[in-house]
Amino acid sequence: DNVHDKSRGSLIVLEGLDRSGKTSQSNRLVSYLKEKGVLVESWRFPDRTTSTGQMISAYLANESQLDDRAIHLLFSANRWEKRSLMESKIMCGTTLIVDRYSYSGVAFSAAKGLDFQWCKAPEVGLIAPDLVIYFDISPEKAAERGGYGTERYEKLEFQKKVAEHYSTLRDASWKIVDACLPMDIVEEQVREFAMACILTCQKGKPLNKLWS
Ligand code: Z5A
Fold first, then answer.
1. Per-residue pLDDT tens for 134-185?
2. What per-residue confidence (pLDDT) applies to 62?
3. Quick check: pTM over 0.90?
4. Which numbered atom of ligand 1 lies nearest the CA of 179?
5. What was the pLDDT predicted at 148?
6. What is the CATH number of the domain that holds 143?
7. Where is the Thymidylate kinase-like domain (predicted)?
8. Which of 21, 67, 193, 195 could link 175 by a cystine bridge, Cβ 3.0 to 4.6 Å?
9. Which residues have any ligand 1 atom within 6 Å of their CB?
10. Which ranges of the chain does DSSP label H, i.e. alpha helix?
């Protein structure tokens, strides 16, 4: 009985344009939660360590070419192959802080011109995040941050389209942070959103499925 009584962890997803600060804030949040005694792990998609992840990584680095739909499905498969592990960790009480998830999958592929609903379809049934934090920054401001590297999607015009698709995906449950504020202020807001979410999940909020 004790096993079933144990409260679950949360699935917290960070989304935003390239250079919006997700990686920095994910690291800060995970350290903070660890200090608070929360069981927590830092995750990111794509997970470049698996075999699908290696194909994705080569594609992003422009070392391989793939059909737009094929790469879309690889990104999705890269999440599906982690689904059951994510579920068991969450149900055993671990909170996952995840840098990018299905919303990136849809926003980036739709920005290439693929049909929006077609892009959502393979994501349906994955674990729904308990909280999505969106790091809001204009594509121009993001591009100013150290400039873009050589990865495939790091181009201003493309990031503008990605931003449009993110606004279509956004719903009332998303927490939006102004990613142009000083990092310490962003960090403070992210902590508050995360702590509130973790408490709600501990109190028994059910784990849902995405877009179903
Ligand atoms: N992709 C996809 O197509 N389909 C999918 O399903 C998924 C992803 C999951 C993976 O990139 C690419 O794959 C991505 C989407 C696509 N392509 N793009 N673009 P990734 O995850 O490997 O890389 P990234 O997410 O784009 O990470 P990034 O470039 O490292 O950005 P970030 O994590 O958001 O930002 P950061 O590294 O924390 O910060 C960037 C810089 O800004 C850094 O110098 C910071 O010190 C600075 N910074 C951060 N916050 C601030 C504030 N508040 N003020 C000033 N400066 C700041």
1. 999 999 999 999 777 778 888 999 999 999 999 999 999 999 999 999 999 9
2. 95
3. yes
4. 53
5. 76
6. 3.40.50.300
7. 14-190
8. 193
9. 16, 18-24, 45-46, 60, 75, 100, 104-105, 108, 145-146, 153-154, 179, 181, 183, 186
10. 2-5, 22-35, 51-60, 68-91, 102-110, 116-120, 139-144, 156-169, 183-202
- Structural domain contains residue 210: no
Query: Residue 212 domain-assigned?
Result: no
Count structural domains, the chain. Answer: 1
Cα(62) to centroid(ligand 1), Å: 18
Q: Which atom of ligand 1 is nearest to the CA of 180?
A: 53
Which residue has its alpha carbon closest to ligand 1 atom 48?
A: 21
Centroid of ligand 1 to alpha carbon of 173 (angstroms): 22
In a domain, 129, yes or no: yes
User: Is 145 part of any domain?
Assistant: yes
Q: Which domain holds residue 121?
A: 2-202
Residues of the chain with pLDDT under 70: 1-5
The alpha-carbon radius of gyration of the chain (Å, integer) is 17
Give the separation between CA 33 and CA 190, rounded to whole angstroms.
11
Q: Please tell me what DSSP assigns to residue 133.
A: E
